[in-house]
Design a protein that fits this description.
- It is a single chain.
- This protein is an all-alpha fold.
- It folds into 2 domains: 1-63, no CATH class; 66-141 and 155-219, no CATH class.
- Helix content is 70%, strand content 0%.
- The chain contains 11 helices and no strands.
- The protein has helices at residues 8-21, 26-36, 40-47, 49-56, 66-85, 93-115, 119-123, 127-135, 157-176, 180-193, 198-218.
- Helix 3 packs across helix 6 (93-115) and helix 6 (93-115) runs parallel beside helix 11.
- The chain is elongated and about 55 Å long.
Length: 219
Amino acid sequence: VETYPYFQTGRLLYTKGLHLTGDPKYGDELGKAALFCADRSRLFYLIHSERYEELLQQPGRDSMSEKDRTEALLDSYLQSFEEKKNPEPGTSPIEEHIASADYFAYLESLGEEIGASSDQRQRLQHQDIIDAFIENADNLNIRPAPVTQEKPPQEEPEAEVENEFLTETLAKIYIKQKKYEQALTIIKQLSLNFPKKSAYFADQIRFLEYLIINEKNKK
């Protein structure tokens, strides 16, 4: 990889080897591989293929409908709220960003397949995704408590983490209630309050904007 840094296959295999051996250079090399890799989803699945081996070998997976796969994807997306609070040991921010990017890669590929059928379905290419998401949403009607504008002069780190978790939980409730614009406002505010996690929140913002656009196309 030093002689041919743009040799994608060699760099992917080299990064995979560092991951398997627990080499301390793995984190730095992963960042380089993400830059040189044309498809980051391949990089992610190559490194963590063992996590998905059981899922890929499940009977009847080939006959799984697009709706079922979409529901599984959205369920996994919502679970990322909890997984981010308790990340797996050894998972770097780069890996988290690559994983979240797979949601949009899947949505885009699914949209192309649906759009090929007719012009009308192309206009509402992700309608099945939205409908499946709403059908599984809990029938909740929770009003958020008033948010005070005053902040203590020195807030403890534990309090910051708790506030972030509660706010993300509220955003998740809004998503289940189909109130995407309210959820988008919360996530944007979190991105400003926690700049170190801007990459994570950027993916959340893109996802919600995607849902809002499709919701407007329904009307």
